[in-house]
Specification:
The protein is an all-alpha fold. The chain has helices at about 10-20, 20-30, 45-55, 60-75, 80-85, 90-95, 100-115, 120-125, 130-135, 145-155, 165-175, 185-190, 200-210. It starts with 9 loop residues before the first helix and ends in a 14-residue tail after the last helix. The model is unreliable at about 215-224 (pLDDT under 50).
């Protein structure tokens, strides 16, 4: 089976998208070249990442970081897995600040890992991205968007388009000068032009949605 690399050639993606979509390309040139994501080069543990995604949901970064630190201290490990989470009961999780729903989600994740239902990083490297989504969204508290962020920023898959993300929809609205944001279905159709680099296009759409009146100095590529 083919093995998927973590990351892709962003310079090739920049050139490809600039040629395929002039409207998006004009914004890309205005914003400047986006470097490869640093997360593509860092060690990555899918189960631990999912557990942390659950704990961070609906909280500020500082509050979530505090709770995660308490959980790590309670289990005596910085590795959140079924074996380490098994060292702490639900009452102790609540004492750390973990809500009842998140505790249930962590228990479900741990049980699925113990049953071999969560693909390892090695297994993911040979899986199609849709199969990774299908494997992970049954976990309580893990939605499609969470998995898509993992695919984009940790696994470095090049062709992911989170059509339900409001920032991306707003960015597409600005690119095409629409009165309203495109629906997820409309964005999916619009995004056909951006393949096979929809991940890179998405990174620009987020920036376009937040783009202020004052443009920053574009980042140039090394060979420019």
């Amino acid at each position: 089976m083919p093995r998927h690399a973590r990351g892709f050639d962003t310079e090739e993606a920049f050139d490809h998208l600039s040629k395929r979509d002039r409207k998006l390309g004009a914004w890309m040139k205005r914003i400047g070249y986006l470097e490869p994501q640093p997360g593509w080069r860092k060690p990555f543990d899918p189960v631990d990442a999912l557990a942390r995604a659950i704990l961070y949901q609906q909280l500020s970064g500082k509050a979530a970081s505090t709770i995660v630190g308490r959980v790590e201290a309670a289990i005596g490990s910085t590795r959140l897995h079924f074996d380490t989470l098994g060292r702490i009961d639900d009452a102790a999780l609540r004492a750390c600040g973990v809500s009842g729903n998140k505790s249930l989600a962590l228990r479900d994740l741990a049980a699925r890992e113990a049953n071999g239902e969560i693909p390892t990083l090695r297994q993911m490297s040979t899986m199609h991205q849709d199969d990774i989504v299908a494997a992970l969204v049954p976990v309580r508290g893990i939605g499609r968007w969470t998995v898509e962020m993992m695919l984009m920023f940790r696994l470095g898959r090049p062709d992911v388009l989170p059509v339900d993300d409001l920032g991306i929809r707003k960015g597409a609205q600005r690119v095409d000068k629409l009165e309203t944001m495109p629906t997820p279905k409309e964005l999916l159709a619009r995004g056909e032009r951006w393949g096979p680099y929809r991940t890179y296009a998405s990174q620009y759409l987020w920036r376009i949605s937040d783009f202020g009146a004052e443009a920053k100095t574009p980042t140039k590529r090394s060979q420019d």
